[in-house]
Amino acid sequence: MNVKDLLSLKGKIALVTGGAGNYGKCIVEGLAEADATVITASRNIENSKKFAQKCIANGLTVHVMQVDQADHDSVMSLKQQIIKKFGRLDVFVNNAVSRPMSGYNDPIELFEESMRVNATGMFDILREMTGLITLAGGGSIINISSMMGVFGPDLTNYEGTDMGDMPPDYFFHRGGLINLTRYLARMLANKNIRVNCISPGGLFNNQPKRFVENYCKKVPVGRMANNDDIKGLVVFLASKASAYVNGENILMDGGMHA
Ligand SMILES: NC(=O)c1ccc[n+]([C@@H]2O[C@H](COP(=O)([O-])OP(=O)(O)OC[C@H]3O[C@@H](n4cnc5c(N)ncnc54)[C@H](O)[C@@H]3O)[C@@H](O)[C@H]2O)c1
Description:
About 45% of the residues lie in helices and about 15% in strands. It is built from eight helices and seven strands, in the order αβαβαβαβαβαβααβ. α6 links the parallel β5 (about 140-145) and β6 (about 195-200). α2 crosses α8 (about 230-240), α4 runs parallel beside α5 and α5 (about 110-135) runs parallel beside α6. It is globular. The site of nicotinamide-adenine-dinucleotide has 26 residues, from α2 and α5.
């Protein structure tokens, strides 16, 4: 098969949770540029609509749906909407994240809130969307974790800034998502579903200058991730080009941990 055909997502229906967020927007755009019909789903429908309008103006096919993945009824409602509108789902990018904690000493209730969204709710939506992909005869699931799901915090990145009190919940659920990827890759293989994970490094988003300087010194390519960096990887994992890649976690960190 020609490599352009292998990478094409023409005719595919792809769902991106947290599609209105920083990495989410890049992922939605990348999949749509590879000719997928993309559903962007977030809690905040207004932000999603604004971004979808921009994509549509650029000739991309992007639809907006609302979901709170911490709420089972909302997840089931999203599922029904997808069935009604498209009748199928081929690709699920499990990207949404909630960050209720900001540091080690935060109230334990915030850890619990985080688990409701990032562990229980995340698994709920993943399992329901897997059901849809199964009905379509198979497809691809891409979990978005973080390099912080693989490594502990590098506190020297925060020297000279008021950042640096790292949220424990994030390191816990990002790490869990990577091993859940391996579990699912084995459990779902007989349904013709591949499950992979991308663990990105920090996306440049006008962070404090000192942080960016500290951070970039550690990255062999000399910079933070930009808006294009994740696009190719997501399209690759969503497409036939990665048909023999399953259960993998790809660190996308500019070589920071090479
Ligand atoms: N931004 C980075 O530098 C960075 C670095 C490494 C990994 N990541 C990973 O990238 C992914 C996206 O992170 P981001 O920084 O773009 O996030 P973000 O905070 O910019 O966006 C998060 C999105 O998730 C949605 N969301 C939150 N709670 C939800 C819920 N209950 N139901 C449905 N949607 C909900 C929000 O509405 C938002 O659209 C995450 O998996 C994160 O771990 C981000």
